[in-house]
Write a structure and sequence with these properties.
It is a single chain. The chain has 256 residues and is of the alpha/beta class. It contains ten helices and twelve strands. It has an eight-stranded parallel β-barrel, surrounded by eight helices. Strand 11, helix 8 and strand 12 form a beta-alpha-beta unit. Helix 1 packs parallel to helix 2 and helix 7 runs parallel beside helix 8. The two termini are 14 Å apart. The model has no long low-confidence stretch (mean pLDDT 90).
C-alpha cells in the first residue's frame, strides 16, 4: 500500500450542532461544527465529513450555512451528506464549499441517481454512504444488510451486492459504517470491511466503532483506505488525531 491512509473526523450535525450517539441513537451534544472543524484542521486531519443526521427541510439551510462557514475557515477536503437526493442537491453543496457529496437513502431508493450525479460532476465528487448491519436473513448472502434513513429502516438489500453495484455505476468512494459498532468504541467491524473490499476496487472509508488508536490499523488491514471516527475525536484528548496517525504508522502503513 503506497497511498497514505487518510484520517477523517466525522461531524454529525443536527440543527447546527454536532451530536453523537450509540448505534445511531441517544444523541448528545458534542459542540459547534465550525469550531470543531477548525480544531481538527489544526490537529492534522486529512479530510472532514459532515453528515446532517436528521436532514429535515427545516435543518437543510442550517447545514448549508455550516458548510459555507467551514469552507471559509478550513482548507482540507470537506464531504457533506444527509438529505442528498438529486444532482441539483450536489450542485448546491459544491457551490456552498463542499468538495464531495455523500449519498445514502436516495441512492438505495433510486440507484439511477448515482449515474446522474457522476455524469454531471465526475466520480470523484460522489461518496456512497453504506450504513450496514449484521443480519441472519438467509436471502442476504453476505450476512450484512443495507439500512436507510439514518439506520432506522432495513432495506432488504445485501450490503456487498449493493456496494458492487454502486461502484460499477460510478461512485468514487464508499463510506462503510457499521450500525452495530457505531459509537460502541469496541473496534471496527473488520469482517464487514473485508467483505466489501473483496467486492469493489474503489476506496473504502471505514467507520463505526473506533475507541482507541490501536483499533485503526485493524480496519486498514481489512482493506480500508481511510478511517473515519467521531466519538474518539470529539470526547478524547486534543492530540488524538496525532495518536491515531502514530498507531497507523507504527503498524507499517503510510500516513501524512
Amino acid at each position: 500500500m503506497s497511498v497514505a491512509i487518510r484520517v477523517i473526523p466525522c461531524l454529525d450535525v443536527d440543527a447546527g450542532r454536532v451530536v453523537k450517539g450509540v448505534n445511531f441513537e441517544g444523541l448528545r451534544d458534542a459542540g459547534d461544527p465550525v469550531e470543531l472543524a477548525k480544531r481538527y484542521n489544526a490537529a492534522g486531519a486529512d479530510e472532514l465529513t459532515f453528515l446532517d443526521v436528521t436532514a429535515s427541510s427545516g435543518n437543510r439551510e442550517t447545514t448549508f450555512d455550516v458548510v459555507r462557514t467551514t469552507a471559509e475557515e478550513v482548507f482540507i477536503p470537506l464531504t457533506v451528506g444527509g438529505g442528498v437526493r438529486t444532482a441539483d442537491d450536489v450542485d448546491r453543496l459544491l457551490r456552498a464549499g463542499a468538495d464531495k457529496a455523500s449519498i445514502n437513502t436516495a441512492a438505495v431508493e433510486r440507484p439511477d441517481v448515482i449515474r446522474e450525479i457522476t455524469h454531471r460532476f465526475g466520480s470523484q465528487v460522489l461518496v456512497l454512504s453504506v450504513d450496514a448491519r449484521r443480519t441472519t436473513d438467509p436471502t442476504l448472502a453476505s450476512g450484512f444488510e443495507v439500512t436507510t434513513h439514518g439506520g432506522r429502516n432495513g432495506s432488504g438489500r445485501d450490503a456487498v451486492a449493493w456496494a458492487r453495484e454502486a461502484a460499477e455505476s460510478g461512485v468514487g468512494e464508499i463510506l462503510l459504517n457499521s450500525i452495530d459498532a457505531d459509537g460502541t468504541k469496541e473496534g471496527f467491524d473488520v469482517e464487514m470491511i473485508a467483505a466489501i473490499r473483496a467486492a469493489v476496487n474503489v476506496p473504502i472509508i471505514a467507520s463505526g466503532g473506533a475507541g482507541a488508536p490501536e483499533h485503526f490499523p485493524a480496519a486498514i488491514a481489512a482493506g480500508a483506505d481511510a478511517v473515519l471516527a467521531a466519538s474518539i475525536f470529539h470526547f478524547g484528548p486534543v492530540d488524538m488525531i496525532a495518536r491515531v496517525k502514530q498507531a497507523i504508522k507504527e503498524a507499517g502503513y503510510p500516513v501524512r
